[in-house]
Amino acid sequence: MIEFGFGISPSSRINLDDFDKEKWNKLVQIEPEILQCISCGSCCASCSGGVFQNVSLRSAILNIRNGKTDSAMELLKGCMLCGKCTMVCPRNINTRNLILSIYKTYSEK
Amino acid sequence: MIYEGKKRIWSDYQKEIPDDHYFYVRSCIRQSFFPASEATFLDITRNKLNKDIFETEHHTTCGGIAYHSDTIPQETVMTIIARQFALMKKYGYENYVSSCITSFGLYCETLETWREFPELEAKIADNLKKTCNLEFAKPKFLVHASDLIYKYRDLIASQAKYKLINKYSGKPLRVIEHIGCHYSKMFPSKGVGGAEYPYVLVGMIEAWGGEIVDYPERRHCCGFGFRQYLIQSNRSYSLTNTYKKFESMKPFKPDMIITNCPGCPYFLDRWQYVIAETQGKTYGENGKGVPVFTYEEVAGLVMGYNPWDLGLQTHQVEVEPLLDKMGIPYDPKEKYLGKNGKDLGKPEIVECFNNR
Fold first, then answer.
1. Cβ separation A8–B279 shorter than 8 A
2. Number of domains in chain B
3. CB under 8 Å to A97, separation ≥6 — which residues?
4. In terms of domains, do B95 and B239 share one?
5. Residues B125 and B205 in one domain
6. B57 and B161 assigned to the same domain
7. B122 pLDDT exceeds 50?
8. What is the layout of strands, in order, in the sheet containing B211-212?
9. Which residues on chain B are in Cβ contact (under 8 Å) with A1?
């Protein structure tokens, strides 16, 4: 294959038909606090894992709402469950619990 | 549906195109990408339709490429454009026809800027006088060359030797029409059909017997976008745009693509090869690509010009399958012969998908 020095970029298209309402409702039932998130990014700013890896709870929640659950799971994979984000969340969301619940809900096939 | 109401709304999307007497300016890149298109335009309008189309060797680039790649300021571009308009006046013309969509968009932008800022117009007129000693003028009518072919489409159809019909099935060819972004997306009122319903190419295809393919990404940019291409590290943007369009049109099995911009046919044509090499995908029949044409080339084919005189051998995607479908005779031995039988040399890669 010829190396051109450039290639096709992956699609960034958001397809809201991919949004899994059933799983979302299940998650909200376990963690109703997710609805309180204002996407301020305090969790990401304080994240120790995020310094070294691509970890972002804020982006993960956004991705779930956009139907991109696979990339949401990728964004949480590096979480060390240290709980710093729980301490800084201005909405008092138990983010540590939320991350575990997201993992549990969306790992189920 | 209230037909009269629809007719009234559609009339708002029309553009006044004078019938004759034009000052013609060429495109910088079309002359190298599609070398015979402009010559074909002049031959059809002057010799077949007997129109007065004047051009002078004194006109220069419009400055569009430099402007859109941020290398020269707007006032410089405006002075270059003012010089072109002044040449038009010098030779006694009021109607201006541009071969290039980039130039056309830039002329529209310049005229609109002058209308909104008269003090800038006065400054440019002064610049023109000081630098070129020419009298400032503005065209009465500004049109793109595809507007003219659109206007003459029925005249061309009346002289047509071939139609956009598949001779094997007897059905109209399925044609993708792609409008250059700078034709009507920047100033919708300057294009036939505006930005929402561009009709300039559709009108030609319908008049010459083809069938329009409507697909989801029909109005998406081809991917040229100047800075998306001029810098190598940005070319992924350009390539991805084209890929997105081809993926979208694939299920509709198009026979050909017709465009009215210098960049679009080039990128829709050449990127098919890159997609084939990197993704192993082709979008035409039998593992071939979808041939891409300028509107002058299609007009020339319809009127019975020799395909090699139209410069179709300079395309990346082979055009022969389409010529066969239209029933146009051609001599494969003449494909790589230039003017006066001069051997142009065979390119290393002759097909869209080179199985290596």
1. yes
2. 2
3. A31
4. no
5. no
6. no
7. yes
8. B211-212, B174-178, B256-259, B292-294
9. 277-278
Domain region containing B82: 22-145
pLDDT tens for each residue of B126-158:
999 999 999 999 999 999 999 999 999 999 999
* Closest to B332 in 3D by CA, of B345, B313, B349: B313
pLDDT given at position B233: 85
Contacts of A100 (CB under 8 A, 6+ apart): A81
CATH classification of the domain holding B123: 1.20.1050.140
Domain presence at residue B10 = no
pTM of the model: 0.85
Same domain as B237, residue B328 = yes
Per-residue pLDDT tens digits for B155-196: 999 999 999 999 999 999 999 999 999 998 999 989 999 888
Substitution target in B233, B234, B273, B278 with the highest count of A β-carbons within 10 Å is: B278
Q: Is A18's pLDDT higher than 70?
A: yes
Q: Are the C-beta atoms of residues B184 and B195 closer than 8 Å to each other? A: yes
- Asked whether this complex has an ipTM greater than 0.85, the answer is no
* B237 within a domain of the structure (yes/no): yes
